[in-house]
Amino acid sequence: MTVHIIADSAADISADADSRLTVLPLTVAFGEDIYRDGVDISKERFFEMLIESDELPTTGQVNPYAYTEAIEQAHAAGADEIVILTISAKLSGTNQSAVSAAAEAGGEQAGIYVVDTMSATVGERVLVEYALRLAHEGWKASEIVREIENRRADVCVIGLLDTLEYLRRGGRVPAAAAVIGELFSIKPVITIRDGEVALLGKARGSKNGKNLLNREIEAAGGVDFSMPLCLGYAGLTDRLLQKYIDDSRALWEDAAPRDQLPITRVGATIGTHVGPGAIALAFFKRA
Question: Mind telling me which NCBIfam families this protein's record contains (predicted)?
Fold first, then answer.
């Protein structure tokens, strides 16, 4: 039995990563110009435009019709069952689009399942990668869904922002707080908790921010290297992430060769809100 996985571009994973994977783009709009994330606009070009723009772009969900088309195409390609994994329903209406399209196509009785990853970007990505692993191991769709729903709470997503400016521009922090943050080089450390972005702490300077990041990893019990993990960066260069990897090599050196650490550039969906210079890590907690 062949199981196909459908994800969305908020997972920051390429459809080329696996023959059983379809990735549907969310949209990003700069004024009246609307682009499909990763299709009409590359991640690099997005950050160039984000830095150049005076106004914050807006992001849009995947619509139900796109899911309907993807379901039909998966069936035409020989899929017996389909598992759709989406960005957190608390962060986007994409999940509801998937639920509507799946129901119209017959739902679980027709072998079509929808899972809210309750995450985004690298956190969503590691769950998609785990689902793909299970699909290749021969798990049925219902078994994959049950396993992902059981394990999604074990996924830790931790991010360090370089600036509060983009959160300010998006109305997520007061302007005065952002000004003070810039003045004192405050670096917020964030996570995704219960499907929503939450603040873990604030550090003064990048070095303290990285230390706080590592303390959060230790508090979670460490990284389970037998499971998918991913590091992400927002912006035009991964220089800050590479420095973090070097500074934190004790976390990886005994378990994963440095050149084999999976790294991705964060796309428009999350990049709009965190801005350039942010770094993130997603991993499964050790049992």
Answer: DegV (TIGR00762)
* CA–CA–CA angle 129, 132, 136 (5° rounding): 140
Count Cβ atoms below 10 Å from residue 59 Cβ, excluding itself: 22
223-247 burial code (b ≥16 CB/10 A, e <16): bbeebbbbbbbbbbebebbeebbee
* Domain tally, the chain: 2
Read off the pLDDT of residues 253-269 as tens digits, 9 standing for 90 and up. 788 888 889 999 999 98
- Tell me: do 121 and 168 sit in the same domain: no
Q: How far is CA 131 from the centre of its chain?
A: 15
Angle between helices 239-247 and 206-219 (to 10 degrees): 60
Considering the domain architecture, whether residues 85 and 164 belong to the same structural domain is answered as no
pLDDT digits (tens, 9 = 90+) for 224-255: 999 999 999 999 999 999 998 998 888 887 88
Q: With a threshold of 0.85, does the pTM exceed it?
A: yes
Look-up of token digits 């150049």: 52
